[in-house]
Structures are given as C-alpha cells and as structure tokens.
Amino acid sequence: MAKTKRMILDGVLDHIASHVATLSTTKEMWDAVGKLYENPLENRKIILKEKLRTTKMYKGESISSYMTRI
C-alpha cells in the first residue's frame, strides 16, 4: 500500500498532494484526487481551454518540454 500511496502522491501537484497525503487508504486518496480534479462547472472548462489556447512554445524549448507543460 505504501508504494501505491507514493505513486498517487508523485502523480499530483504539490498543493493537491498536501490534501490527500494524510488519508489512510489508497482508495480514500484516489477518491479525493478524483473529487479535486472533477469539476463540472462550465467556467472551469472555459478557463482550461483558454490556458491551452494561450500556451506557447518558448524559443529554444524542446517539443517534449512544451508537451509536458501542456
């Protein structure tokens, strides 16, 4: 279970990891991550689309680095 917890924590952003790190089971952690990322509000979709649209590749940046930021 410790390995699975580590995988979940490594796969989320730091501010989200702090919310789920104290939970006792991996199921609770997974559900909490799902609730944090699940946002049915239309406003959230618009913001994410705008961020994707305005994300530009920096001069000299590799494709893999650019895709990681996206």
How many discrete domains? 2
* Percentage of β-strand residues: under 5%
Helix content: 55-70%
What is the residue-averaged pLDDT? 83
Structural class: mainly alpha
Label the overall shape. Answer: flat
Number of contiguous helices: 5
What's the alpha carbon Rg, rounded to whole Å? 16 Å
C-alpha termini separation: 31 Å
Order of helices and strands: HHHHH
Low-confidence stretches: none
Q: What is the number of strand segments? A: 0
Descriptors:
70 residues; mainly alpha; 2 domains; flat
Helix and strand arrangement:
Blueprint: H1 2-10, H2 14-20, H3 26-37, H4 42-54, H5 63-69
Question: What features would you describe in this structure?
Answer:
The protein is mainly α. The protein has two domains: 38 residues, no CATH class; 31 residues, no CATH class. Helices cover 69% and strands 0% of the residues. The two termini are 31 Å apart. The model has no long low-confidence stretch (mean pLDDT 83).
Write a brief caption for the model:
With 70 residues, the chain is mainly α. It is built from five helices and no strands.
